[in-house]
Specification:
Layout: H1 18-23, H2 30-40, H3 56-68, H4 74-83, H5 85-90, H6 101-110, H7 113-132, E1 140-147, E2 160-166, E3 171-177, H8 184-194, E4 201-204, H9 211-219, E5 223-228, H10 233-243, E6 250-259, E7 262-272, E8 288-298, E9 304-313, H11 323-329, H12 331-343, H13 353-376, H14 380-383, H15 387-394, H16 398-406
Parallel strand pairs: 1-4, 4-5
Antiparallel strand pairs: 1-2, 2-3, 5-9, 6-7, 7-8, 8-9
Helix pairs in contact: 2-3, 2-7, 3-4, 3-13, 6-13, 7-13, 8-9
Length: 408
């Protein structure tokens, strides 16, 4: 079965209950599609040269299943494979045994990182289409870069990978690597061209407040909400000066809310950007300014602090609760935190940029496994479970892991 295929199911007769129909809502298990993904990655090895003992798909599945169970380093992955070798063989994998650490290293360095990331995009796309049917509201695509701190390039910088993350489904839709002597400004337009943003809202940090990026979003039929900082000096300080002379179209306050030992209130003021932006023609369309002000009280010390941020959006000022999109963008930061906290991404060292990106792709697939499982569940208690809790559960035994991945 190819990556883009799914098993067909016989039509259900009209007199069956809705509950029975829901039983067949998901046609493929996570495990089935993981195996399709692993088989779809092009093998970089030459079949007529050398002794190829292990199938590439088996090695990729070993890395995914081990990391899903919390085994991150190569030595731990090999130990995981040896401990469960009989169960792997019952599944038709690792018939030649567990690959060595040198083999894992060659595979991570040898797989074409761009092609593997493209296969991940296809794999995620199947689940994204499925989960969007049950997710309500307009889709929000969060874009942000993440430095691979375990790898250092010749120029002394860490490779940077920009990703598009769906807030509504919790999935990384696509990634784009920054070139060695480049940055996110050039990578973001390439990333936007990879995904469908028509009718969706793209959120990003201040690095993406660039004319070519905004033009790309508009051209592809999307809207945007981007933070405004001093990298656009004239625009930022011009807006700040004019805000003092204008009254917002409307404003509202959220909170106070208690969380993480802080009591926080957030105030949003919405302005018509055409009254505030001097060079309107440069940005090719209507603009809305959102002023965000937070007031935070730390319970432990009684210390109070305030913070003000500015955001620019193509959404009309009449859009209700624009501040919600500001907060939704932070979901991609939470995803990055989970990659570091649960999969130790920043601590895993890789010598080559290619290996670093392949590691990133595998880890984003592992992250997607838990997001997909939670969003497929009906029980609220299952949907609230965190990645760390689910990893501890599947790490209990190989049987639990396979049952977890085989649910539909």
């Amino acid at each position: 079965m190819s990556l883009g295929q799914s098993r067909t199911i016989e039509p259900i007769s009209p007199n069956r209950t809705t509950k029975l129909q829901n039983k067949f809502e998901y046609q493929s298990s996570i495990l089935e599609r993981l195996r399709e993904f692993a088989a779809s990655v092009p093998d970089f090895r030459r079949p007529n040269k050398g002794n190829i003992r292990h199938k590439l798909a088996d090695i990729i599945m070993l890395m995914i299943l081990a990391r899903t169970s919390g085994h991150v380093g190569r030595a731990d992955i090999i130990e995981f494979g040896k401990h469960n070798i009989n169960k792997f063989r019952k599944m038709g994998m690792l018939k030649a045994g567990v690959p060595s650490e040198a083999t894992l290293c060659r595979v991570e360095n040898g797989i074409n990182a761009t092609l593997m990331a493209d296969r991940m995009q296809e794999y995620i796309g199947l689940f994204h289409t499925e989960l969007r049917k049950t997710a309500s509201g307009r889709e929000i695509i969060c874009i942000d870069g993440k430095a691979e701190r375990g790898t250092v390039q010749e120029n002394g910088r860490n490779p940077d990978i920009v990703s598009a993350y769906s807030f509504n489904t919790g999935l990384t839709l696509a990634t784009e690597a920054c070139q060695e002597k480049s940055n996110e400004i050039k990578a973001v337009p390439r990333l936007i061209d990879k995904i469908d943003i028509s009718g969706k809202i793209v959120t990003a940090d201040a690095m993406s407040m660039q004319k070519n990026i905004i033009d790309s979003v508009r051209k592809n039929g999307g809207d945007f909400l981007i933070e405004l900082k001093a990298n656009q000096r004239a625009l930022r300080y011009g807006v700040e000066d004019r805000l003092k002379e204008h009254t917002p179209e409307y404003s509202y306050t959220e909170g106070p809310e208690l969380g993480h030992g802080r009591i926080e209130s957030r105030t949003y003021r919405i302005y018509d950007g055409m009254d505030l932006i001097a060079d309107k023609e440069k940005w090719s369309g209507n603009m809305t300014i959102i002023e965000y002000e937070s007031d935070t009280l730390r319970k432990s010390t009684g210390e109070r602090s305030t913070e003000t941020r500015l955001y620019v959006s193509s959404l009309p000022t009449t859009t209700p609760a624009l501040g919600t999109y500001v907060r939704n963008h932070w979901s991609i930061e939470s995803m990055h935190w989970e990659l570091d906290r649960n999969l130790l991404q920043d601590k895993v060292k890789r010598k080559s940029t290619n290996a670093a990106r392949n590691l990133d792709t595998i880890q984003r697939i592992v992250h997607s496994v838990f997001s997909i499982w939670k969003r497929r569940r009906k029980k609220r208690s299952d949907k609230r479970k965190g990645m760390a809790e689910l990893m501890r559960y599947v790490a209990g035994s190989f049987t639990k892991l396979i049952r977890f991945l085989s649910q539909k």
